[in-house]
Specification:
Layout (H helix, E strand, L loop, with lengths): L1 H13 L18 H22 L7 H5 L2
Helix pairs in contact: 1-2
Length: 68
């Protein structure tokens, strides 16, 4: 959960006009929106894979929806 929170701040800070230096100890390049789009794309692909491999969140609780 800590990784998700930190990652969300990195993605949101990449949209600012100043950008951020994601790999600062190794590279002194400032990244902007293009890296944010790549990160969001990776997140979407990973989410689709997780839903395909493990099933959707709704299928984990079938007893809730059988009484409706």
């Amino acid at each position: 959960m800590l990784f998700t929170g930190g990652f969300s701040h990195i993605v949101l800070d990449l949209w600012t006009p100043r950008g951020i230096k994601v790999f600062k100890p190794f590279v002194d390049t400032t990244y902007h929106r293009s890296l944010a789009v790549i990160f969001i794309g990776i997140w979407i692909i990973a989410s689709i894979f997780a839903m395909w491999h493990y099933g959707t969140f709704i299928t984990l609780f079938p007893s809730i929806f059988t009484h409706a």
